[in-house]
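WARN no homologs supplied; continuing
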Amino acid sequence: MPSASPVPVSTTDPVNEAILRVSEDQLQGFVEDPIGVIAQRTSLPVEVVVERLRAMLAAGTIRRIRQTLVTTNLAQGALVAWRVPEERLRAAFDWMFAHDPFTGHVVVRSTDPGAPGAAYRLWTTVKVPPPFPLERHCEVLAGVVGAQGFRIMPAKYLFTLGVGHVRRRHLPPGSRSDISPAPQPVRLVTLNDAEWRVLLALKREVAPEELGPALWRHRAAEAGIPYADFIETVRSLETRGLIGRFSTFLEHVKPNGAGERVTRYNALFHWAVAPGQELAGGCEVARHHVVTHAYWREAGPDFGNVNIMAVVHGREKEWVLAHKRAIDEHLREAGIAFAYTNVFWGGRSEIKPSEVSPFAYEAWLTQLHSGRIPRPS
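OK structure emitted
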């Protein structure tokens, strides 16, 4: 009997592409049966969806599958730019990724020499749960990795947050929604111990064997509460703006299990929008379908006083720049004045979910101060 053909793991396989167009960022909020919904929207059997997701996970095409949280409302969070001596840059990158669970994205970025902020090469996202202070955490990290300075840029408003690399591949420059998104203010929400138990069980990465209709029943058992109570608590957390989306995260920088690169260029766009136009400007930027993240963040004079930031990924640099030009043109047409704009290009990067538990933070501090966490080499 001939052996079965291997399950395709490329993102360009028609079945995988259909699944990923939905699973990357179209399951917003909390979905009680996410695999069933993916199957329904793709007109594929549940068994096929599970088989393909497991195969792509095993091959590294998909890095992780998880329910995301709106962690900007759970912990003090910020984009942080670090001024690190070039000879220490690699070690600082490695240490933050490996040893600080409250650091999520770690990216080495570059821009034109002499441009505002060009000396800040290391960029990270940091989230620190209350009551621990964010600035003190950054001071500790700076001391450990030898940073000469840092700029903390917390989000004031979120305009869009998603990924969807597969469905964005062939977007023409200027493609945008007819409707502006509703800007979401960043507000910290306090949870009780029972809610934390549910949230921590909810956010853990999905193991291959968990994929199926009973996913959240297993998590309710893990949290030690009845399933109906688990769902009720999650729905309550959702109404408080804490639930993001159910998502498959692709390996989008390094070659994946099929030997392909989903994207090659990671661009952070900056605009210094006129005071008073930040909300309108952010909404106009976020209308563009190519934008995966858009925020209002105050970067200060070291960065030309930019206040609107957006992220775009693409396979070709000129394609990314064409989208940047289209957004600039649209802002001018919409009457949004900006005194300065720039692009910071991402190089080496790693991504992991940020820890947000105050219990985990206290344990980490103890380990750091006791010397159980190694210092950069």
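The domain at 76-186+265-362 is CATH 3.30.70.3460 (Alpha-Beta Plaits).
OK
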